[in-house]
Amino acid sequence: MSEPNMEQLLTDAERGRQAKELLENPLLAEAVEVLKARYYAEWLATQPAETEVRERLHNAATIVDEVNAHLRAVLGNGKIATAAIDSMKKRR
Prior knowledge:
This protein has helices at 6-23, 26-44, 51-91. The chain is mainly alpha-helical. It has a domain at 29-86. Helix 2 runs antiparallel to helix 3. The longest helix is centred in the last third of the chain and has 41 residues, at 51-91. The chain is elongated.
């Protein structure tokens, strides 16, 4: 198995660092909480016949979750890349 590309590992490590900063950013955490709470409150206020509105709110809440999941995945990839970089440095 060939050694990973150092340039790609460095890129992934940096992206992981940035994802960590975003996930730990209080303003982003607040925005996520506010949006999800708003979507849920709007969903509760819908009438039975407002299926399209509920679908839109569900999609919006799902997108917020997907953004968080993507950032966590980038963070995880960054941790793996950092470990690979450290391992490569130790072998040299």
